[in-house]
Amino acid sequence: MLTLFVRSVLLFISAVVAMRLMGKREIGQLQPYELVVVIMIAELAATPISDVGSPLLYGILPMAALVICQGIISWLCMVSDKFRTMMCGQPTVLIRDGVICEKQLREMSVTLTDLMEDLRIGGVMDPAEVGMAVLETGGQVTVFPKAEHRPLSPGDMGMQPDREGLPLTLIMDGKVQRQNLSRGQLSEAWLTGQLRELGYAHPAEVFFMCVNTQGLLMVQGKGRVEMQTRQVFPAERARW
Question: pLDDT tens digits for 106-133?
Fold first, then answer.
């Protein structure tokens, strides 16, 4: 039993490492050849687990070979458009200016039920409101509403909003994120001073702390239910 447990753990770790080496994109959207690789890796990991007499290398080496093949194919796709088209196909327009493209639906084996579901996921209920719906090579449908049906944006009103970006996390569960401090050109002395002004003697007392691109500092202490905020520098100072 212990041998079976250890083999299962080792093969699980090998499969996870293989997926990580294939890149983050594998999790979110798979090209046809990538889906084949994922299925084969799962099969290769399962076989040595169920067959205790089979050497672990019979599962690990083929997984390594598949990862290498996937890497070569991905590289070829990046350097050759023709090869990428052959392996991944091309995006297909399913709706153009409110008109459903029946021929393309049949070629891609997409039913009207599937298309309507994808439109609802894209936030559109009526196909007549769609400027263009595109079936991407990864299998997802991208929906673009017509100009008169898309949400109003600041640009439509002639407004120029301030730049927005991801907040810079400074403390997570009591641990100072020194790499982010360096990115924001902030010092630990500055951080300590801000904490003292907010009533914290040590970073370990803070559950979460970040500063956004508007220069607004947000702090939540451990065991507290409120978020403290304060303006610490102008938006122009945010350089990350």
Answer: 999 999 999 999 999 999 989 999 999 9
Identity (one letter) of the amino acid at 95? Answer: I
pLDDT at 201: 93
pTM above 0.90, yes or no: no
The size of the chain, in residues, is 240
Please give the share of the chain, as a percent, with pLDDT higher than 70: 97
pLDDT of res. 26: 46
User: Rounded to 5, what percent of the chain is helix, strand, coil?
Assistant: 50, 15, 30
Q: Give Rg (Cα) of the chain.
A: 26
Yes or no: say if 141 and 113 are a contact pair by the CB < 8 Å rule.
Answer: no
Tell me the pLDDT tens digit for each residue of 155-164. Answer: 878 887 777 7
With a CB cutoff of 8 Å and minimum separation 6, the contacts of 11 are 45, 48, 49, 56, 59, 60
Q: Is the pLDDT of residue 223 over 80?
A: yes
Q: Is 161 exposed, middle or buried (0-12, 13-18, 19+ CB in 10 A)?
A: exposed
Q: Which tokens is 84 given?
A: 């990428």
Cα separation, 63 vs 39, in Å, equals: 11
Hey, what are 201's tokens? Answer: 């003697």
Residue 8, CA distances (Å) to 18, 37, 45, 50, 229 in order:
15, 20, 8, 9, 48
